[in-house]
Amino acid sequence: MKRVHWGVISTSSYARARIVPAMMKGKNLTVSAIASRNLAKAQKAADALGIAMAYGSYQEVLDDPDIEAVYIPLPNHLHVPWAIKAAEAGKHVLCEKPIAMNAAEAETLIEVQARTGKLIQEAFMVLTHPQMLRARELIGEGRIGELRAVHAFLTWTIPDPTDIRMVPEFGGGILYDGGCYAITTARFLFGAEPLRAVMLVDPDPANGVDRTVSALVEFPNGQASFVASQALVYYQRVQILGTEGRIDIEVPFDSTGEKPCNLFLSDSTFDEGTIATEAVAPVDQYTLQAELFSEAVRKGNPQPVPLENSIGNMRAIDALFRSAKSGGWESIR
Asked: Of all helices (H) and strands (E), which one includes residue 7?
């Protein structure tokens, strides 16, 4: 398969440190260009990463005829505008989560994708990680009986109050940044769309963003709950409970790919000795994400994470934000 040539729109620190190096390991793609609003900054990133081209504007990546796909790790409020520009420029789009600021904004991308014929996908790498696929497979096999509850923790601390993730108008706050993972994971495991949701918020006293949230989401056949925070000790975990057993995912969201991922399985007894560990071979989820998307681009394979999935996630996020204001349950429209 001929390699897909990628451009990166932004020199964000996490993209430079983690995602782009992982993409560059992909067997069916080449990261050929990176852009910043400052050419010197772009060139520094290109030199450090070994990328051939550096551009001093995002538009220059879109104007490059050799670039076939772009990865967009811009601030949240810029996701949809630049995804539209990229698709209209003839580029396929892999955009960081959340793909939009609300469901209505996300829905506009359906028309853009259909009109341009270019793939637009949210970068939810957890949905293509083998450990999450295996967890869903175990549920489907009846390993834990009937799935009834999914509970997730995803917490860390952001010490810098000027961090982009702490700016309200840029889409700051933990629900967009981390809670979205818990929602998409629950939807993936239940294989259904949620009905209603409620959320408590501890706002940051300095800027008002949702720094810690606790949420409960109702599904047709169960419940999902999660705690997400930008102001607590680092921790992540997903617990999946059925009528006859449970599955704990040790590192559900931020697997480094350096060691196996463990799924802890147990039956319905209280005897801890019944727990079995199933190890999933190490894989860099960002490399895999880019390879699967590139394969969809080149071979016309189904999109790994379709836009409709992203819209469903944004509808749940919208309901949770409404709940934070109303103080009660909100239907997911």
From this structure: strand 4-9
C-beta separation of 52 from 74 below 8 A: no
Q: Over the stretch 211-226, which tens digit does the pLDDT of each residue have? A: 999 999 999 999 999 9
Residues recognised as catalytic: 97
Q: What is the DSSP letter of 99?
A: S
User: The whole model's pTM is what?
Assistant: 0.96
Q: How far, in Å, are 67, 164, 208 from residue 160 at the CA level?
A: 35, 9, 15
Ordered by start, the domain boundaries in the chain are 4-123, 126-286+314-331
| CATH number of this structure's domain 126-286+314-331, picked from the four choices 3.90.550.10, 3.30.360.10, 3.40.50.20, 3.40.50.2300 | 3.30.360.10
**Weakest-pLDDT range from 235-239, 254-258, 282-286, 302-306:** 254-258
Q: Report the candidate in 55, 113, 111, 109 with the shortest Cα–Cα distance to residue 81.
A: 109
